[in-house]
Amino acid sequence: MTGHREPTVVGVPNFNAMEDAATLRAAMKGFGTDEQAIIDILTSRSNAQRQAISQAFTHEYGRDLIEDLKSELGGHFEDVIVALMLPPEEYLCKELNKCMEGLGTDESVLIEILCTRTKKEIADIVQAYERLYDRPLAEHMCSETSGDFRRLLTLIVTRAPQGARDEEAGVDAARAAESAQQLYDAGEAKWGTDEEVFNKILAHESFAQLRLIFEEYKNIAGRTIEQAIKAEVDGELKDAYSAIVECVENAGAWFAARLRAATQGAGTDDGCLVRVICSRAEIDLAGIKKEYERLYDKTLQSDIEQGETSGDYKRALVALLGPA
Fold it and tell me: Where would you find the membrane-spanning parts of this chain (predicted)?
């Protein structure tokens, strides 16, 4: 997670919430819906601007904009628009809740959301989750996961408010060397891996500090932390550790791989496609696009357009990707 992030959506200058609210109302009133008008406005405004439009809409028309949009739209197109309309942390809470409710838990969604976010983002999610669902996220997760994977995720979410992943604090080279030695001693230097040490360091340290630790690790072990994790850990825990490590090294490439997997193979993973594109558009989607092209020699846009998305759904996703 380098300090330099490249979004594709930055909002519009000379923004007028009342005007946008009126355009959206006109797009949904009467016979038929003007989907293009909805796409044009909502994919180019920032989330803060969309919240202002939502307030103006209620103030002016006494109606709930999200409810109106839901009643006019359907399918994955509706999913994209609702994802854009919710505050980011509320949207991610909704996705976390959805992946844990019902039969079986989708661990890959837990990893995608919780192992790739900064301390501040996690703290916002934790707070919003309890407000929305009346139970702590950690408690819900504990009932749906097990073992060291559960312990890692619990550390990430319970420590967020008390300073886990402290992005603002500076980096400490001496402490990084100590942590790297602890990781080495807990893994390669002994028979069997001591997951507790890995969990503590990977859940707690900031991305900048982890970057230093991983460099030190390479000096001590003569191979990268990724290589060690792949050799010594398996299952969800391996995927979670790898997500943290890869996001420290190059978050854009990690998300690019996630999108690639979502668009290739039998059937599109629309949930992942919508979530990554909508939740990263204001953070680093331009960087993800560059990594996608570097890794796969194709643009993300061409893979989406040639895939199984269609109509307004496809147009909305492509609009969020911004100019090629």
Answer: none
Query: In terms of C-beta distances under 8 Å and separation of at least 24 residues, what long-range contacts does 305-312 make, across chains too?
Result: 307/263, 307/268, 308/267, 308/268, 309/76, 309/268, 309/270, 309/273, 311/77, 312/35, 312/36, 312/39, 312/73, 312/77
How far is it, in rounded angstroms, from Cα 267 to Cα 263?
Answer: 8
The tokens for 65 are 């904009």
Model pTM? Answer: 0.93
Long-range contacts of 237-241 (CB under 8 A, 24+ apart): 237/147, 237/148, 237/149, 237/152, 237/195, 239/107, 239/108, 239/111, 240/111, 240/115, 240/149, 240/152, 240/153, 241/152, 241/198, 241/202
Integer Cα distance of 2 and 244 in angstroms: 13
Which residues fall within 8 angstroms of residue 168, CB to CB, at 6 or more apart?
none
Q: End-to-end distance of the chain based on CA atoms, in angstroms?
A: 23
